[in-house]
Design a protein that fits this description.
single chain, 3-stranded antiparallel sheet, binds cytidine-5'-monophosphate
Length: 232
């Protein structure tokens, strides 16, 4: 998923927005594979910005300096059997960007209007044939307002914390359920209360609450919508 210069307005876009831990990543990856579409993990761009800021010793409170970093980000995404690898200045940082600390810093830089502005065209450039699945918080509201299908995927904070906890334990990492819930609630608060592109469902989005739904049921529901809107 490297970045071409200009979007192709004829390429259909499916946006999947929602809070942290709602299962967007897995759903988007599956959908993109099934449809043969490209994938935009917009959260990775905010995470890469946050990581570059820390690596370069920039003051994270300095909005203009952080926006400069976002504008000049030297990044690449490479797809391999292990999934999508994120490279920052040629170095694989896939693990570093998934750290909890990077996620919290990503939430901080994502609240800066100049940073969102700096990343906007980069994100839009992912709109290419045969189509795009875009994962984020403001894909349907701000980045791709003309998307052919907009989904807002959510789940209760407790269920999202529980899923994250299980994921970490499965990966052999140490985890604490309470700490996960605290982190999820803090991230929800930061993402929903910011002035610039806050987390919210687009007016024309279909809301899916996955609290009691297995992944496959969510996928089936979205595939039905895709058939109605795109492939029918
Ligand atoms: O989705 P992910 O957890 O990787 O995103 C990291 C952070 O980036 C989120 O907590 C959110 O603050 C921010 N983000 C955003 N807009 C997006 C995607 C992510 O503000 N479209």
């Amino acid at each position: 998923m490297n970045m071409p210069a200009k979007p192709n307005v004829y390429a259909p876009v499916i946006t999947i927005d929602g809070p942290s831990g709602a299962g967007k990543g897995t759903i988007c990856q599956n959908l993109a594979n099934k449809l043969g579409f490209g994938l935009l993990d917009s959260g990775a761009l905010y995470r890469l910005t946050a990581l570059a800021v820390v690596q370069q010793g920039i003051d994270i409170a300095n909005q203009e300096a952080v926006a400069k970093i976002a504008l000049a980000l030297d990044i690449q995404f490479e797809t391999s059997e292990q999934g999508v690898q994120a490279l920052l200045a040629g170095k694989d940082v896939s693990r570093d960007i998934r750290l909890e600390e990077t996620g919290m810093n990503a939430s901080v830089v994502a609240a800066y209007e100049p940073v969102r502005e700096a990343l906007l065209e980069r994100q839009r450039a992912f709109q290419q044939l045969p189509g795009l699945v875009a994962d984020g918080r403001d894909m349907g509201t701000t980045v791709f307002p003309n998307a052919v299908l907009k989904v807002f995927l959510t789940a209760s904070a407790e269920e999202r914390a529980n899923r994250r906890y299980k994921q970490l334990i499965e990966r052999g990492e140490s985890a604490n359920l309470r700490a996960q819930l605290k982190d999820i609630l803090a991230r929800d608060e930061a993402d929903s209360s910011r002035a610039s592109s806050p987390l919210k469902a687009a007016e024309d989005a279909i809301v899916i609450d996955s609290t009691t739904m297995p992944i496959q049921a969510v996928l089936d529901e979205i595939m039905l919508l895709v058939k109605q809107r795109i492939t029918a």
